[in-house]
Amino acid sequence: MAKAVAALSLLLLVLYISSGGDSAMANEQKTWCVAKPSSDHATLLANINYACTHVDCQILQKGCPCFSPDSLINHASIAMNLYYQCKGRNQWNCDFRNSGLIVVTDPSYSDCIYA
C-alpha cells in the first residue's frame, strides 16, 4: 500500500511539473538548453540563424572560447542556450521546433562556459 501511495505521489508531482506548475522550481534549479543529437543539419543551421539574430553569438566566432569543436551540433547548442538564458529559462524558449533539450547538467567544457 505504501508503495502505491508513493508511486501515485510521484506521478502527481510529474504531472504537476509537466503542466507548467514548476515555474518556481525551474527558476531555482539551473538549466541549460542544448540541441537534440537527432536533429538534422538543416534544423541545426536554422536554430543557429534564429538564435543569433536575437542574441550575441560572438563566442562562436573563430578564435573565441566556444568555436572549438567546430561542429554544427556544438555551435547550435551554444546558440540555443544563449537564446534560452537571455529570453528566460522557459520550456518554450528551448523548443526550437522540438529540436531543443533542457538539461540539468552543465554542458560547459574547457574555456567554453555555458551562460
From TrEMBL:
The keyword Glycoprotein applies. GO terms for cellular component: plasma membrane; plasmodesma; side of membrane. InterPro entries: X8, X8_dom_prot. Residues 31-114 form the X8 domain. It comes from the Eukaryota. It is found in: Cell membrane. It holds the Pfam family X8. Coiled coil: none annotated. Residues 1-26 form the signal peptide. Keywords: Glycoprotein, GPI-anchor, Lipoprotein, Membrane, Signal. It is a lipid-anchor; GPI-anchor. PANTHER family: BETA-1,3 GLUCANASE, CARBOHYDRATE-BINDING X8 DOMAIN SUPERFAMILY PROTEIN. This is X8 domain-containing protein.
